[in-house]
Amino acid sequence: MEIQGIEKLIAAAWITACVLITPVLFIIFDLWAGIRKAIERGEKITSNGLRRTFAKIAKYYNVLLALLVIDAIQMAGFWYVDTYYEHNFPVFPFIVLIGAIGVGIIEVKSIYEKADEKTKRQTSDVALLAGELAKHKSDPAELAKAVAEYLNKDKEEKK
After folding, report:
1. Proportion of the chain above pLDDT 70, given as a percent
2. What domain range includes position 10?
3. Could you give the number of structural domains in the chain?
């Protein structure tokens, strides 16, 4: 086995490791921005946001690890062809890089969302609930049903 070929694999492994670390950094930046926005809105900081952050990390890395398997096959094939047949293909984690860029774009968008967007969304939800309550003010069963639907919708959005 040629030393230069092994060096290419080692370099590709380091690049892959760096690419896989960057989504965590973007997620941490988004968490920091979320905490800052919550403070601006005067909200109490709870562990719910941290749980959502860990769930987000798990979802992103499920995809990134699947892409990594594809990239590992691709890089091993390119390394083999380069080493034994002297065809020069780049041994580089292209697919994982594209996935990490996608995660970065999503997180940057989330970071730049305005803090008042969430407040506006919550205000419109409360206005809709008030409208439903006004419609059913004479029927306690319908009133309770409208409140329960609102609370269940709020729980589903937080998941």
Report:
1. 72
2. 3-113
3. 2
